[in-house]
Amino acid sequence: MAPKPGLQIGRILGIPIYLHPSWIIIFVLITLSLRLQYSQQHPLWSPTQHWTAGILTSLLFFSSVVFHELSHSKVALHYKIPVLSITLFVFGGIARIGKEPGSAKQEFNIAVAGPLASYFLAIVFYGVAKMFPFSEMVGALAIWLAGVNAGLATFNLVPGFPLDGGRIFRAIVWGVTKNYVRATKIAGASGKLIAYGMIVFGAWYAMQGQWAPGLWLAFIGWFLLTAAQESVAQVAIREALAGLSAGDVMAHEVPTVGGSLTLEDYGAEVLRTGRRCHLVLTDDRMVGMMNVHRLNAMPREEWAITSVQAAMIPREQVLIATADEPLLGLLERLLAADINQMPVVAGTGDGGTHVVGMVSRDSILRVIQTRSELNHLPTS
Length: 380
Prior knowledge:
Layout (H helix, E strand, L loop, with lengths): L6 E6 L2 E5 L3 H19 L5 H32 L4 E7 L2 E6 L6 H28 L5 H20 L7 H14 L2 H28 L3 H31 L4 H4 L6 E3 L4 H11 L3 E6 L2 E7 H6 L10 H4 L1 E2 L6 E2 L4 H11 L3 E7 L5 E8 H14 L6
Parallel strand pairs: 2-3, 5-6, 9-10
Antiparallel strand pairs: 1-2, 3-4, 6-7, 7-8, 10-11
């Protein structure tokens, strides 16, 4: 269950790094906890040193989380798998990739890269700690970061999908069975079992008086359970779309408007027909695409004096599909680009292309729903 990106704070390896609003909660809690820990372990430090050490350690911890996710991302990029973003949120961090790995080997290498990176950082920080006494700020920070990175790596190796260990487990099952769907279902079941165990143990631990760690463990278990269920649901989507192409679900009737139409008149057309997306034509040639999102991006007072062609998505920026493109890959492209429709084109005799239909997320979702319902119908 990937959180929606929040505030972008930078870009590394071409990958945007986001801070989800929930990250503030865990950053504050970790900082307060560390400040209290340092004040107890180092009473001779000043309050300023306690706070400084707490804040620096928290920042270095989340930098370690980014390093962990970047390690996954670097291997994914090596296999030509696009990485859309890395988001820091209340449970740490998550890298969002554009598509699933194409083989068990790719899955294994991408998954194992994160824990290996965290173990590497644990060794580095432990080396720094050996160079500085624990009484000094650098030594205190380093020894905590060494332990927490080792713990992060070890926890992620738990075979609970979609943790790294669960993905490694799926890769192994996938390699043995040569069946991605079966491997995901087995890994998902393992993830659910571990998640339920964490929830039950966390609740029991909380009832023993350890409210904070118990509830936190149960909350993590709930998150893993939801993520495992979503992962299994994605496999059902793959099964439902198997063998289908864009041409099977596209709408042959393609709504069009002229580029000279004003935005005022375009808005009236949208209200009249209920269609939210149109191809823009000039002299029967597609020059772009117009939709409600682009319409609403323009100031309302400018609608009467602005043409559709001035506000549309230019032709060179419009993503297109071919009729024989696999539907699953097309859905992944729609989601990665965060768009709802895509024109379907076919070649012409003179080497050009012409639009033959339009495919949308809604049409794909209807196919998934219908096929899922048919799978539960009795067979004769």
